[in-house]
């Protein structure tokens, strides 16, 4: 006899209830980096729009930064940590394959009833997390979900690589998602193109380094022109698709918050999308650098706190990066 | 034919990098004369691919030093 199972019943919709960010104290200027690379402040500004970035302290971990941002996001949402059903940490710089950063963060913020797992989707990790969280809420697997994008990329940079050393930085951004009567997260447009694994990768695997040694500790490396071409050509189409499936046009947006990869990529996507001039565009990279999974929530928090974009407004968010992977959705701002 | 491509390329370079159309001449170097950096060059290439239906792989882009190189490549591969 086949038993009839009871299944969970979720909320009609999910929504982002709050956003918070953590920026490490240490400011790193272009001039400081140029002591190691053959470059200049002017060149870095022109090629990336980055004026300065933040590095975490040597003894400050991915989980440390994530816990600060997560606790702030819960406080802003007014949600008891014990009510969180899932902690999702999007990161590629937690230095332990296991245990996860998410389990550590859940414990440290008092999310005693939460499941926890990490998401390895690089610079798309935050948007992947939003979709997973939304699905969990709508299926009843969790009532409240924390999504934390966090990176300590300074640990994984080759400071002598003039193509990447100036780009990457550290930080954390967190959002709390919960149930909503009204639609507040549009359908995700996402995917992965593993045929372009080499576009952004590591110089070597950690195991190769252990067994065979190597010239440097494994670090990020990137084919800049290939990534730029993909971002401008494909990602602008993904952004348009996310608007289309949400049933809105660029004119309806109150904010465009792309992953802060490079100011030039942002500019090119804005041109390709024909984004109306009245839509504010996140340009947090200027003082934050490229913080991968953390960049979208950090930019969202900064724009909201500065009053540049309205609470309850409509934003297009899009993450894209190593994999190559991407995800975009239209969301209602917290 | 080549003149048509040159004219079209001049419009693209103008749109991407703000270089005056009349400055985009066959003997001009993208980098040294027109101040087109590697990222702008990618945008020029992508626009050219769309306009003339050619494929210009990244490995080929670095060989396109002058505007004339690009015009010749597009004309030959159209």
The CATH superfamily of the largest domain in chain A appears as Thiolase/Chalcone synthase
Based on the structure given, which CATH architecture of the largest domain in chain A is correct? Answer: 3-Layer(aba) Sandwich
Rg of chain A computed from alpha carbons, rounded to a whole number of angstroms: 19 Å
Q: Proportion of β residues of chain B?
A: under 5%
Through-space gap between termini of chain A = 48 Å
Assembly level: heterodimer
* CA distance, first residue to last residue of chain B: 11 Å
Give the proportion of residues in helices of chain B. Answer: 55-70%
Keywords:
heterodimer; A: 334 residues; alpha/beta; Peroxisomal Thiolase, Chain A, domain 1; 5-stranded mixed beta sheet; 4-stranded mixed beta sheet; 13 strands; 24% strand; globular; B: mainly alpha; Non-ribosomal Peptide Synthetase Peptidyl Carrier Protein, Chain A; 4 helices; 0% strand
In summary, what is this structure?
The complex is a heterodimer of chains A (334) and B (78). By secondary structure, chain A is of the alpha/beta class.
Structure in words:
The complex is a heterodimer of chains A (334) and B (78). Chain A is globular. Chain A folds into 2 domains: 168 residues, Thiolase/Chalcone synthase (Peroxisomal Thiolase, Chain A, domain 1, 3-Layer(aba) Sandwich); 144 residues, Thiolase/Chalcone synthase (Peroxisomal Thiolase, Chain A, domain 1). In chain A, the strands form 4 sheets. In chain A, strands 1-7-6-4-5 form a 5-stranded mixed beta sheet, sandwiched between helices. The mean pLDDT of chain A is 96. Chain A is an alpha/beta fold. In chain B, helix 1 crosses helix 2 and helix 1 packs across helix 4. Chain B has 4 helices and no strands. Chain B has a single domain, classed as ACP-like (Non-ribosomal Peptide Synthetase Peptidyl Carrier Protein, Chain A). Helix content of chain B is 59%, strand content 0%. With 78 residues, chain B is mainly alpha-helical. The mean pLDDT of chain B is 90. At the A-B interface, helix 7 of A face helix 2 of B.
């Amino acid at each position: 006899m086949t038993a009839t199972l009871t299944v969970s019943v979720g909320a009609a919709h999910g929504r982002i209830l709050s956003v918070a960010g953590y920026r490490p104290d240490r400011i790193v200027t272009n001039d400081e980096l140029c002591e190691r690379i053959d470059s200049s402040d002017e060149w870095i500004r022109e090629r990336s729009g980055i004026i300065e970035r933040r590095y975490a302290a040597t003894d400050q971990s991915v989980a440390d930064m994530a816990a600060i941002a997560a606790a702030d996001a819960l406080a802003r949402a007014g949600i008891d940590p014990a009510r969180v059903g899932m902690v999702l940490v999007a990161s590629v710089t937690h230095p332990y394959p296991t245990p996860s950063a998410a389990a550590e963060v859940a414990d440290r913020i008092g999310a005693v009833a939460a499941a926890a797992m990490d998401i390895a989707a690089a610079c798309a990790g935050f948007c992947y997390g939003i979709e997973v969280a939304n699905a969990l809420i709508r299926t009843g697997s969790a009532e409240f979900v924390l999504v934390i994008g966090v990176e300590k990329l300074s640990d994984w940079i080759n400071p002598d690589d003039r193509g990447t050393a100036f780009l990457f930085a550290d930080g954390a951004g967190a959002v709390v998602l919960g149930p909503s009567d009204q639609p507040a997260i549009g359908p995700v447009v996402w995917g992965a193109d593993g045929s372009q694994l080499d576009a952004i990768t590591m110089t070597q695997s950690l195991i190769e380094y252990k067994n065979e040694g190597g010239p440097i500790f494994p670090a990020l490396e990137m084919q800049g022109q290939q990534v730029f071409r993909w971002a401008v050509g494909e990602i602008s189409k993904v952004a348009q698709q996310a608007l289309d499936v949400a049933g809105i046009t660029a004119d309806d947006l109150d904010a465009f918050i792309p992953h802060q990869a490079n100011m030039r990529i942002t500019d090119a996507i804005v041109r390709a999308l024909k984004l109306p001039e009245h839509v504010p565009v996140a340009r947090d990279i200027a003082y934050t650098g490229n913080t991968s999974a953390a960049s979208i929530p950090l930019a969202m928090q900064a724009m909201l706190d500065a009053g540049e974009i309205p609470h309850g407004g409509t934003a297009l968010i899009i993450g894209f990066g190593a994999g190559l992977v991407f995800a975009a959705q239209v969301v209602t701002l917290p | 034919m080549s003149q048509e491509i040159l004219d079209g390329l001049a419009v693209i370079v103008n749109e991407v990098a703000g270089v005056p159309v009349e400055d985009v001449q066959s003997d001009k170097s993208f980098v040294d004369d027109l101040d087109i950096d590697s990222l702008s060059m990618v945008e020029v290439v992508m626009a050219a691919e769309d306009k003339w239906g050619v494929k210009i792989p990244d490995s080929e882009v670095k060989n396109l030093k002058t505007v004339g190189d690009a015009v010749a490549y597009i004309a030959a591969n159209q």
